[in-house]
């Protein structure tokens, strides 16, 4: 705005000069000169100079006004602005080119990484296949080396974790020397604890697997197939085995304890559970018909509606267990087990065969009589 006012002022100043000169010229031209009085018709030299000056001023006025005048006054500024604009265009072009090049470089680097990973996975797959082949070798040393090498796949690519679980599980179903079995069980333990994801049906098919002494505590093995599985001495503390199924499963001396330990709705008829430790476990609606439960510990277990018909429960302990609606029809007890039943919660709401029911009442009366005699002596 200031520049515009300055330009207008310049224009007005020049125009005023022009008008002043023009007025003087007109006055000079129209005024009678001595030469004119004497009849002379040619203009004088002074008049010619004045006309030249007027023309010059007129030209300057024309050049200083309008578009041409604007460009003539600001030619330098416009040239500088044009140069800056051209430089900006050039910079934008260079920036676009740099961005394009960076994107191309990133794409190339990503492709190179993917190619290296693909090559690495192919190499690992080839090694993995070789290890599986070595596990079937007749040489015990080669089998041992392969079993140890399997563990190296647990610390790398997670896509191999499931493969290790399946491979070790498959090899624990076929005969191997005991040292090889121990290595395979150790690898299986690590593989099962590695991923916090639900196992699929194939991974939960533990049938016929030799898992003696395996530590699987805290795992979610709901719905597992335990048909013929050997879990003797296994550590299953806080392990969920809800809805598991299987015949002839071995759980002798297995540790199935803790609030998280569960055999809820399990179907394990004929299970071999000698000295199984089931303290505090959930056995609600568990089906263990015909199971060998000699010396088993059910202290504090939740056994509502459990089915232990025809089971061998000699030497079993039930101190503090909840036996509401538990079925013991046809089960075998010794005196120690029957005395222990009397310490359980809701034992009077459990289901026994007639002879066992009569014997429990007799034992109950005997216990009450023994407790009353010391009290009478004290009185």
Based on the model shown, name its key terms.
Pectate Lyase C-like; elongated; 10 helices; single chain; disordered N terminus; mainly alpha; 379 residues; 51% helix
Largest sheet: none
Q: Which spans of ≥5 residues are poorly predicted at pLDDT below 50?
A: 1-12, 27-31, 33-41
* CATH topology name of the domain at 207-379: Pectate Lyase C-like
CATH domain class of the domain at 207-379: Mainly Beta
Order of SSEs, N→C?
HHHHHHHHHH
Helix content: 40-55%
Which oligomerization state do the chains in this entry correspond to?
single chain
**CATH architecture identity of the domain at 207-379:** 3 Solenoid
Taking all residues together, what is the mean pLDDT? Answer: 83
Number of helices: 10
N-to-C span: 120 Å
The radius of gyration is 53 Å
Strand content: under 5%
Number of strands: 0
């Amino acid at each position: 705005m200031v520049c515009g006012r300055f330009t207008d002022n310049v224009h007005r100043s020049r125009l005023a000069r022009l008008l002043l000169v023009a007025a003087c010229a007109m006055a000079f031209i129209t005024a009678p000169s001595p030469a004119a009085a004497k009849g002379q018709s040619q203009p004088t030299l002074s008049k010619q100079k004045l006309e030249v000056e007027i023309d010059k001023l007129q030209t300057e006025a024309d050049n200083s006004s309008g578009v041409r005048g604007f460009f003539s006054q600001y030619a330098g500024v416009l040239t500088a602005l044009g140069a800056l604009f051209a430089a900006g265009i050039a910079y934008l072009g260079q920036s676009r080119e740099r961005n394009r090049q960076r994107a191309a470089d990133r794409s190339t680097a990503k492709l190179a990484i993917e190619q290296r990973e693909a090559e690495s996975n192919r190499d690992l797959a080839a090694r993995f296949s070789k290890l599986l082949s070595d596990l079937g070798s007749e040489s015990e040393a080669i089998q041992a080396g392969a079993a140890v090498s399997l563990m190296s796949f647990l610390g790398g690519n997670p896509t191999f974790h499931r493969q290790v679980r399946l491979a070790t599980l498959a090899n624990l179903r076929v005969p191997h020397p005991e040292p090889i079995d121990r290595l395979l069980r150790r690898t299986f333990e690590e593989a099962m604890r590695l991923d916090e994801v639900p196992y699929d049906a194939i991974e939960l098919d533990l049938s016929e697997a030799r898992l003696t002494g395996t530590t699987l505590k805290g795992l979610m093995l709901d719905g597992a197939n335990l048909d013929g599985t050997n879990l003797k001495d296994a550590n299953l503390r806080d392990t969920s085995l809800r809805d598991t199924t299987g015949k002839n499963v071995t759980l002798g001396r297995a540790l199935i304890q803790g609030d998280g330990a569960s055999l809820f709705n399990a179907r394990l008829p004929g299970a071999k559970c000698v000295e199984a430790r089931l303290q505090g476990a959930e056995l609600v609606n568990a089906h263990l018909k015909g199971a060998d439960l000699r010396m088993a510990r059910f202290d504090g277990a939740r056994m509502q509606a459990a089915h232990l018909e025809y089971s061998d429960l000699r030497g079993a302990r039930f101190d503090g267990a909840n036996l509401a609606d538990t079925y013991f029809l046809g089960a075998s007890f010794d005196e120690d087990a029957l005395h222990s039943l009397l310490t359980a919660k809701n034992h009077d709401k459990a289901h026994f065969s007639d002879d066992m029911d009569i014997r429990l009442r007799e034992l109950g009366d005997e216990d009450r009589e023994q407790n009353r005699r010391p009290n009478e002596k004290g009185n």
